[in-house]
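Students often ask why inverse folding is considered easier than folding. One informal answer: many sequences map to the same fold, so there is more than one right answer. In these notes we will look at a single instance of the problem. The structure comes first.
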C-alpha cells in the first residue's frame, strides 16, 4: 500500500460518504482519474483512486523507471486491490477502465462492490470475439513473447491508434504526453490466452449473487475494446441475478475517460451509481 492509497482510504473512512473506487488500466496511472475523483466528490461520494502494485506517483517517474511496472499479473493486481478495498469501512462502488474494467468485474465477482461500472473492459475467459482492431492494438506487446516480463511503452502512433483515434491529432498528442506510461505485458498475454487456459487469472465469477449491479460502457469507435468485446462481456454478465446493463457512447474511443469528453462518461457512470448507492 502506498502513502497515496493509505491517505485516500483513511479519508474515505473518516467521511460519512459512500466510497467510489477508481481502477486504472494499462498505460495509465491513478492520476488519470483525478478529474473523475473531483467530480464524484462534488456529487457527495468519497473518491479513492487506487494504485496497482509499485505504481510510481507521477507519469514522469514511471517513464524514467519503467522496470518497476514490469511483471504484474491480473491475479496479483486483483488481490492487491481487494486488500486495499478491505480497508474501507463501507462497501464501495467500483469504476474501472480497460484492464481496470476487467479488474472491476473480478472484484465485483468477489462480492466487494455495491455497484460497478466497467468502461471498455478488457476481456475475460468466456469472452470469445477476436476483433482485428483489438489484435492490432495489442500487437506492440504480443508480437514479442519476451514482453510478458517487461513493461512496454507505446509510441505516439501506437497510442493514437489504440487510445486516441476518436480525437484530433493535437488532443491525441496532449493526452499522450500527459497520461501515457509503460505497461506490464503480462496482463495482455493473460487476456489473449484466457480461453485456452482453464487456470487463467483473467476470469470473472459472473454468477455470484453478491456481485451487485453492473454497467458496461462501450465507446463506439474504440479500437482496443470494440463493441463486440464489451457486448460479449455483457452477455456473460447478464447471467447474474443482479442488474446488468450496457451503454454505447457515440463517437468515443478508448481514451473516453481522459479526453475532453470525459465528463459525459463520468456522468453516465455517476447516474448508474446513484441508483444503487
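Output (designed amino acids):
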Amino acid at each position: 500500500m502506498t502513502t497515496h492509497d493509505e491517505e485516500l482510504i483513511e479519508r474515505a473512512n473518516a467521511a460519512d460518504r459512500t466510497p467510489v473506487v477508481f481502477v486504472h488500466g494499462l498505460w495509465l496511472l491513478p492520476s488519470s482519474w483525478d478529474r473523475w475523483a473531483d467530480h464524484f466528490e462534488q456529487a457527495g461520494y468519497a473518491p479513492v483512486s487506487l494504485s496497482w502494485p509499485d505504481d510510481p506517483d507521477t507519469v514522469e517517474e514511471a517513464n524514467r523507471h519503467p522496470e518497476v511496472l514490469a511483471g504484474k499479473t491480473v491475479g496479483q493486481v486483483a488481490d492487491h486491490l481487494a486488500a486495499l478495498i478491505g480497508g474501507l469501512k463501507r462497501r464501495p462502488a467500483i469504476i474501472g477502465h480497460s484492464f481496470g474494467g476487467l479488474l472491476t468485474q473480478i472484484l465485483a465477482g468477489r462480492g466487494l462492490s455495491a455497484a460497478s461500472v466497467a468502461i471498455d473492459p478488457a476481456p475475460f475467459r468466456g469472452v470469445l470475439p477476436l476483433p482485428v482492431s483489438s489484435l492490432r492494438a495489442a500487437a506492440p506487446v504480443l508480437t514479442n513473447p519476451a514482453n510478458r516480463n517487461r513493461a512496454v511503452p507505446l509510441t505516439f502512433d501506437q497510442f493514437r491508434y489504440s487510445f486516441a483515434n476518436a480525437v484530433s491529432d493535437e488532443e491525441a498528442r496532449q493526452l499522450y504526453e500527459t497520461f501515457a506510461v509503460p505497461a506490464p505485458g503480462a496482463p495482455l498475454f493473460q487476456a489473449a490466452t484466457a480461453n485456452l487456459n482453464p487456470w487463467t487469472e483473467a476470469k470473472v465469477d459472473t454468477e455470484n449473487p453478491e456481485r451487485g449491479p453492473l454497467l458496461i460502457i462501450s465507446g463506439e469507435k474504440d479500437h482496443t475494446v470494440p463493441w463486440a468485446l464489451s457486448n460479449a462481456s455483457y452477455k456473460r454478465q447478464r447471467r447474474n441475478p443482479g442488474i446488468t446493463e450496457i451503454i454505447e457512447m457515440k463517437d468515443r474511443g478508448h481514451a473516453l475517460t481522459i479526453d475532453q469528453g470525459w465528463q459525459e462518461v463520468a456522468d453516465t457512470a455517476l447516474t448508474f451509481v446513484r441508483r444503487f448507492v
